[in-house]
Amino acid sequence: MKFGLFPALEYAIIIGIAFFLLLNSIEDEARRDWLKPYSVDALRIWTGISLVALAVGEKLAPSALGQVFVAQYQWNFMQALGFNVFDDRLFVLSAGMVEAVIGIVLILGTTVRLAVLALSVIMAISNIVFIVQGNNEAALVEFIGHMPIIGIALLLLLLGYGQRLKITHAFSQQQAISSSV
Asked: Distance between CA atoms of 42 and 17, rounded to whole angstroms?
């Protein structure tokens, strides 16, 4: 409450982890079996909310902070690839949009494994860039900060994307209701 709702949403991933652990540790076996399929959905959706909040809060809304970071660590590799129009502002905007889109895909539940794979590659590249630059301390901070997302990415890749709460199910249920009327 002290810092506001939006900064709190950046840590929504913790709510997803809590729901996942709670729904998988219910002592009553019948109730656990009934609720367990929702545990992956909760983890996926809250992680998506966290990613969207991080994209908006760190890259899209206050893009000046991202631009300072990109300039300080010389991360804008697009100019080296020949895209001279791609200044630091556009680079930060692109990074924020990619993070937001991956978060939205997780919330909606479509192509989750592909989105998680792309997210994992992006996070690995960020760590590799720090190591190549010789900034091992920043690489360690980045790795520790990404650990919850890395763990969730592994769970979503191995366990699936959650079968209960998907945007496609909402549309198919709506179509079934309208066709029966």
From this structure: 8
> Which residue is associated with the tokens 């990415």?
153
Rg (CA), the chain: 19
Contact present, 120 and 1 (Cβ < 8 Å): no
Q: CB–CB of 103/52 below 8 Å?
A: yes
Q: Which helix (H) or strand (E) holds 137?
A: helix 136-159
More confident residue, 77 or 180: 77
Q: What is the pLDDT of residues 32-47, one digit of tens each?
A: 888 888 889 999 999 9
pLDDT over 90 at 76, yes or no: no
In 3D space, the residue among 61, 68, 44, 73 whose CA is nearest the CA of residue 4 turns out to be 61
Residue 3 has pLDDT above 90, yes or no: no
- Nearest alpha-carbon partner for 90 in 82, 78, 81, 101: 78
Supply the DSSP string of 21-51, one letter for each residue. HHHH--SSHHHHHHHTHHHHHHHHHHHHHHH
**Model pLDDT, residue 148:** 92
Contact 100, 52 (CB under 8 A): yes
